[in-house]
UniProtKB/TrEMBL annotation:
The keyword Membrane applies. It is a multi-pass membrane protein. This is Cation diffusion facilitator transporter. Keywords: Membrane, Transmembrane, Transmembrane helix, Transport. InterPro entries: Cation_efflux_TM (IPR058533), Cation_efflux_TMD_sf (IPR027469), CDF_Transporter (IPR050291). One of its GO terms (cellular component) is plasma membrane. GO terms for molecular function: cadmium ion transmembrane transporter activity; ferrous iron transmembrane transporter activity; zinc efflux antiporter activity. It comes from Xanthobacter flavus. The chain crosses the membrane at residues 6-27, 84-108, 120-137, 157-176, 188-207. Residues 8-217 form the Cation efflux protein transmembrane domain. The keyword Kinase does not apply.
Length: 307
């Protein structure tokens, strides 16, 4: 199965759960369930964007794509859109959680709220089962696809399952205390559960947002830079070049690498095919020769062309 196929399935299931959550939340009087539905709806919207970006990237890296439609206007590719979507997704999920936390605190301060525990429990059981199934499904599919989008999607399903399971436990407790001396805690079950869940899930997207910002700002990945420098240094020593300059960046799933080799002036003339052999050697040594690797190799006697 392709990345786009997995994302389509995820979008469809997420939309169904989002609508289910909003309806059950309103019927049961649970703001926590309404938040669960809104959270799922936000995630579905971002997954739609992820699907669009994934399709654009696949189109732009296909053979002969440079002359086709929109690709002709973005000749440097669409990799830069991927971290933008991932970052926006993480920020929206954090924002929704913070807003829900504020509402939960406000509800606690106003005496809580009553809700229909039977409907709330039914919703929670259905959602936990579906979310766990989808998390396992997406994670298994991503073992071969290795997509950041799918990794985030699997994490979102796990977050959704954890959130709803916490609600399920809280609702079961609320149902159990009905008609007992502890029934006074019932109105506080929903806002307390919502507050606890929000405190748990708010930090989870931070790592994704941090990596997305690093990609957007073209922060050099240390491991990739070290590897490229080692390959370039070996080439300099082997062919007697003076030095090299390397420029490396990660942009989503894309790897952008530029290498400039400083050749001594008066270097004996070589056929272009011979230079291409050196380029092929460098490319093979760097590895990861996929459509998502953008590798530029140049040779010059003037260091200014490399700086």
């Amino acid at each position: 199965m392709t990345e786009q196929g997995v994302l389509r399935i995820s979008i469809g299931v997420t939309l169904l759960l989002a609508l289910l959550g909003i309806v059950f939340g309103l019927l049961s009087g649970s703001y926590a369930i309404v938040f669960d539905g809104v959270y799922a709806l936000t995630d579905a919207s971002m997954t739609v964007l992820a699907l669009v970006v994934a399709r654009l990237i696949a189109t732009s890296t296909a053979p002969g794509a440079s002359a086709k439609g929109l690709v002709a206007h973005f000749t440097m590719g669409f990799w830069h859109l991927e971290p933008m979507v991932l970052g926006l997704n993480g920020i929206l999920l954090i924002s929704a959680s913070v807003y829900a936390l504020i509402n939960a605190v406000g509800s606690l301060m106003s005496g809580g709220r009553a809700l229909d525990f039977d409907q709330a429990i039914l919703y929670a059981v259905i959602t936990v089962a579906v979310a766990l199934f989808m998390a396992l499904f997406v994670r298994r599919a991503n073992r071969t696809i290795r997509s950041d989008f799918l990794a985030l999607d699997a994490k979102a399903w796990l977050m959704s399952a954890g959130l709803t399971f916490a609600l399920l436990v809280a609702f079961l407790v609320g149902l159990a205390v009905q008609g007992t001396p502890r029934a006074w805690i019932s109105p506080y079950i929903d806002p307390v559960a919502l507050a606890v869940v929000c405190l748990v899930i708010i930090p989870l997207p931070f790592a994704t947002v941090k990596q997305a910002l690093a990609d957007i700002l073209l922060v050099t990945p240390p491991a990739l830079k070290e590897h490229v420098d080692a390959v370039a240094a070996a080439i300099v020593a082997r062919y007697g070049f003076l030095s090299f300059r390397s420029y490396v960046a990660r942009v989503g799933r894309g790897r952008q690498i530029e290498l400039y080799f400083i050749v001594p002036q008066g270097w004996p003339a070589m056929r272009l095919e011979q230079w291409d052999v050196i380029r092929d050697e460098i490319g093979a040594a760097i590895g990861d020769d996929t459509p998502d690797r953008w590798l530029t190799i140049a040779f010059t006697t003037d260091p200014e062309w490399a700086d």
